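Predict the structure of MULE transposase domain-containing protein.
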Amino acid sequence: VHGKFLNDKFKNTYINVWKYLISIYEKQSLIFKIKILHIDFEIGAIEAVKEVFPAVQIKTCRFYLGQAWWRKINGKSKLRTAYNDKNNDLQIWLKSFFGLPFIAPDDLDDFFRIVLETYIEPGCLFPPILWAETPSSNPRTTNGAESFHSTYNAQFNSAHPPIFVVIATLMETQAETVTKLLTISKGIIKPKSNEESRKIENLKNKHKHYVNNKTPENLLKYLAIVGNRYWGFKI
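Done. Here is the predicted structure for MULE transposase domain-containing protein.
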């Protein structure tokens, strides 16, 4: 949405967007209600949602969290070198970061405190409730929205297309969305691939083993195993 219809990413801008959408629903005598919202790590967007929808459950994107942490590691030569050195004990700790989103928020205090100010401490920008939870088959990424934006933007040949082209594209997108929603309402949902299902089941089993044997040592082992599978991009 930003870049096409919004001028900035400020809180008030997002609030105005939500209020506008709500007003459209009210004109149709409909109720605009959100239970769970997947969103990126944008303070303005998160704060706006909290204000407009106080009861909504916010879920942030694990993929972009991993990217943010990876950029921090890659930006420091000492950390980058350690990350690629199998004989360096620091590598295990760094890769364990990427396992943090797969444990319950309450368990995070047992882990090291490098990311406290930004991701863990009370009052931090992105508290654990936004990005940490026990493993499940529920989606925890905004890649679907990113894919939509990519496909949507590909429909235009310029940064500022004619308004009639934008309207035609939006109408076509709306028709496709309605078709998908009707399919979902009938209980027809695309199943996960066998590989993805095995991956989720394996993750659940690893977490179950950790929960049944909770110790600081086992927490580190669990994070090292999970983090090594969900780490950031290679250099």
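The two ends are 30 Å apart (CA to CA).
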